[in-house]
Amino acid sequence: MLSRRTLLRAAALLPAVPVLAPGTAYAAIPSLPAVDRRSFAPHEQRFAPYLATLAPMVNDMDGSGFFAGGWWRSPAAPYNARVQEHVFTLAWFHANARPWNPYAGDAGLLAALDAALGHYLSLQHADGSFPEYSRDQHGLAPTGFGLGYLAKTLRVLRASGALPARQAQLTAALRKAMTWFLDGGNPVVWQEHLTWANQTASGLAGASVALGLDPDPALSARLTEAFARIATTGLSSAGFFHEEGGHDMNYNFEVMLPELADAYHHNPDPHLVDLARAFTGFLSYNLLREPDGAGYLVNVAPPPAPAPAGTTRSGPTPTGPRSTGRSPARCRCCRRS
């Protein structure tokens, strides 16, 4: 029996005939029979996995604009705003012409992006926050990371002139989200010692992008205060960033540090340099280069309680050293953890 994926690939070889994606009001976009990595410039190789999975992911969307195929984050439920973060992926491929990108300017892809944004924005609460694990949750991670993905999507849409009505909605949604996130009295985002520093940092990076697009003196002042605050509440005396249960090398190195760099790229606040410098000092005591120079062994702090004998622990923090570049894939489409 042929699989659904096989049929989708075969359909790409047939003459282009508009076919509605199941349960949607927009046409399915054709899958690629193959992706030739030799067509990509070295610095754009990272786009190849996204290109290969773009059409199947879009064609799995339901009639509401929800990415229903389980391609990113769990629970794969319509109330989980984090699932919708791939709006940025759709926006990028629609706007950026490359010899290897057949989806640039594709009307079906733009219609899918419009629907996905409509569903994403419908999840925002009146206070500006977004949910993840239940419809009524006012979540740190979905709002923090959402600020970044929505701001970058807005930047792409403005540059390409696409979806002007959605641009206006995104502008308003970002302002509401920043107002909620940058409130120093918001206990979901801010604690004396941050519970998930990487998630708080993500919102500051996203706010930096958003305020670069639409400057706002009051929100900019609150962002400056937030940079100073995270330098105190997000950093341990040893130099690692606070995560639930203590040190977490995966989140510190693979999420928090890039978020700080992204924030600094758009807003060169000196507190961001101080945070990176402190963590670099911590790393100097916790990395051991492999004999062949292929990478490093990382001293990863153990989780709060050991897993029972004979079992493995799910989650981002394995016990003991691990080699960089060998973490398991956690996402079907882009292997982000």
Structure characterization notes:
With 337 residues, this protein is mainly α. Helix content is 45%, strand content 2%. The chain has 10 helices and 3 strands; from the N terminus they run H-H-H-H-H-H-H-H-H-H-E-E-E. The chain has helices at residues 4-11, 48-59, 87-95, 107-122, 140-160, 164-181, 197-213, 217-233, 249-266, 270-283; strands at residues 287-289, 296-298, 322-323. Strand 1 (287-289) and strand 2 form a beta hairpin. Helix 3 runs parallel beside helix 5 (140-160). The longest helix has 21 residues, at 140-160. The protein starts with a helix and ends in a 14-residue tail after the last strand.
- The helix/strand class is mainly alpha
Could you spell the SSE succession in H and E letters? HHHHHHHHHHEEE
As a percent range, the share of helical residues equals: 40-55%
Strand content: under 5%
Average pLDDT metric: 86
Q: Major sheet, described briefly? A: 3 strands, antiparallel
N-to-C terminal Cα separation, in Å?
33 Å
Radius of gyration: 21 Å
| Count of strand segments | 3
Major sheet: arrangement of strands: 1-2-3
What gross morphology would you assign?
A: globular
- State the helix count: 10
Low-confidence stretches: 1-18, 305-337
